[in-house]
Amino acid sequence: MEDRELARFKEWLLTERDRLVGEIEYVESTMEQTQSEWSGENEFESHIADSATSTFARESDLSLSINSRDMLSKVDGALLRIEDGSFGICVVCGRPIESERLEAIPYAELCMEDQIKEEKS
Ligand SMILES: [Zn+2]
To answer: What total of structural domains would you count in the chain?
Structure first.
């Protein structure tokens, strides 16, 4: 892969990394707030409806946070592969990952064929 192209992917990955870190921090700070509201709850029965809503909000925040963490580790992995020169190479078969695929998912670890196999297994 050309250096120029690699630099472009690196820039994208660093931007994405910043975005994800911000998102995780935001979700975690909201969750802390929700938790302190929750533990400070004394008049429990009169607030059942509110509680149900906030439990739901907490769960969706939690899964958002998990997704972001998952993405972040993929982005970090791709940045490491740029550093060690293995970026854009399938970790399973060692062949170059299709360029259209990298354009769509710059942090892809698998070529199209191995990705399909992975999803089937
Ligand atoms: Zn492969």
So the answer is: 2
Nearby residues of 87 by Cβ (< 8 Å), 6 or more positions away: 1, 6, 9, 78, 81
Domain span holding position 110: 88-121
What is the whole-number distance in angstroms between the Cα of residue 97 and the centre of ligand 1?
7
Distance 68 CA to ligand 1 centre (A): 25
Q: Are residues 72 and 96 in the same domain?
A: no
Same domain, 74 and 43: yes
Say if residue 66 is in the same domain as residue 92: no
Which candidate, 54, 99, 101, 105, places its Cα nearest to that of 77?
105
- CA of 98 relative to ligand 1 center, distance in Å: 10
In tens digits, what is the pLDDT along the chain, a chain of 121 residues?
A: 889 999 999 999 999 999 999 999 998 888 887 777 656 555 555 555 566 666 666 677 777 778 899 999 999 999 999 999 999 999 999 999 999 999 999 999 999 999 999 999 8
Neighbours of ion ligand 1 (CB under 5 A): 90, 92-93, 111, 114
